[in-house]
Amino acid sequence: MTATSEEKTEGLTDDLHKAGLKTTLPRLKVLAVMEASATRHMSAEDVYREVLKDSDPVGLATVYRVLAQFVEAGLVVRHQFEGDKSVFELNDAAHHDHMVCMKCGLVIEFVNREIESLQQKVAESHEFDLQDHSLTLYGLCSNCSESSR
Ligand SMILES: [Zn+2]
Ligand SMILES: [Zn+2]
User: Fold this and answer.
1) Dihedral angle of Cα 111, 38, 16, 48, to the nearest 10 degrees
2) How far, in Å, from the CA of 39 to the mean position of ligand 2?
3) Per the confidence metrics, is the pTM higher than 0.90?
4) For residue 14, is pLDDT > 50?
């Protein structure tokens, strides 16, 4: 943990404790990578690639194990997007839905009030007590749809 200051490590330790997890070096490393990343949605391999920049990196199997522990503790959400491997996202954002590019894997987050309230109305019309939903739109991002033209 050469790159992270003591203060930063303290914050990470807090986050782990809040999620009911003991502080271990691999957990600190994976969490530090996810919190520092500009991309919110990372595959295990993405996380591993960043962890490799550490002077004393942990292995890919450890990254997988730590991510699974994070998901179980509610610290991280796993998305299983169609035709792609799982991506992981810190569970610190307000509700949002996703668009996934089927060519390059770009993930765009969006929130649309009309869609949210329509889903609520549809559920009500079925006397269904809506607790949660996940909505994922699949297609091509603007870059990919341009290059295929
Ligand atoms: Zn794309
Ligand atoms: Zn997201």
Assistant:
1) 120
2) 10
3) no
4) yes
Please determine, for residue 123, whether its predicted confidence score (pLDDT) is greater than 50: yes
Provide the residue type at 38 as one letter: A
State in Å: Cα 112 to ligand 2 middle.
14
DSSP string, 6-23: HHHHHHHHHHHHHTT---
Which residues have C-beta under 5 Å from ligand 1, the single-atom ion? 101, 103-104, 106, 141, 144
Q: Which domains does the chain have, with CATH numbers?
A: 6-90 (1.10.10.10), 97-147 (3.30.1490.190)
Mind listing the pLDDT tens digit for each residue in 19-63?
Answer: 999 999 999 999 999 999 988 999 999 999 999 998 899 999 999
The ligand with the least distance to the CA atom of 147 is 1
Alpha-carbon span 19 to 82, nearest angstrom: 28
